[in-house]
Amino acid sequence: MKTIDALGLKEMRDQGEDFVLIDVREENEYQLTNIGGEFMPLSRLNDFVEQIPEDKKVVVMCRSGVRSARAIEQLERLGFENCYNLEGGILDYGKKVDKSVIQY
């Protein structure tokens, strides 16, 4: 499984790279704090698959990286090839990139 760390994601954003950021946390987590990813909870990921472009890089994130890894496994089984797991999830992003992200 391909991965990207928090600083790599920041660099992609800063450079205006064309990619999709998917947040697979549950709604209450997303409402608590988020970094602007598309809300597609793991529990309902299959409902959103058609909205994910197959021709772009896809970065998948959750709280710590575990659920996003499961989501990527699902996406890869469906034929998605350009998916990256955000190592350490939003927790790591909050520690290394954006201190305003609530740690929970």
TrEMBL record:
Residues annotated as domain Rhodanese: 15-102
Stored SMART domains: RHOD
Pfam family, one: Rhodanese
Residues of the signal peptide: none
Native organism: Fulvitalea axinellae
CDD domains for the chain: RHOD
Protein name (record): Rhodanese domain protein
Protein's gene: moeB
